[in-house]
């Protein structure tokens, strides 16, 4: 009996900081997923509509369109409204987290995030790609 291997998922990474984009890109790729990298809010929304990624990692403070506006636009558009969005932001207080969740984020992760935190939250929203052939464990 042959088991079907999960396919790679696509994650849109939107952050204006090059070091953060590189870190998140590496973390997501380590999990076996593809990435689309953008450095501003306008490109984040445009690429989300075009590619319909499986998950979006979104910064709040970005040029052109901020993350709060992006969240509202993503939730209003029929092509993007159901895509899970994880906000990863340097604004790490509860007020910022609540504002993001109210605007439509599925999860809030404060910066600086560790690789373990990024891995855990991405795996929470995407089925991990199993390169060992053992499948996902139940329970």
TrEMBL record:
UniProt keyword rRNA-binding present: no
CDD domains recorded: REC_hyHK_CKI1_RcsC-like
PROSITE patterns: RESPONSE_REGULATORY (PS50110)
Entry keyword Nucleus: no
InterPro entries, alphabetized: Bact_response_regulator (IPR050595), CheY-like_superfamily (IPR011006), Sig_transdc_resp-reg_receiver (IPR001789)
Gene Ontology process terms (BP): phosphorelay signal transduction system
Entry-annotated residues carrying 4-aspartylphosphate: 59
Domain Response regulatory: 10-126
Keywords: Phosphoprotein
Origin: domain of life: Bacteria
Name used for this protein in its record: Response regulatory domain-containing protein
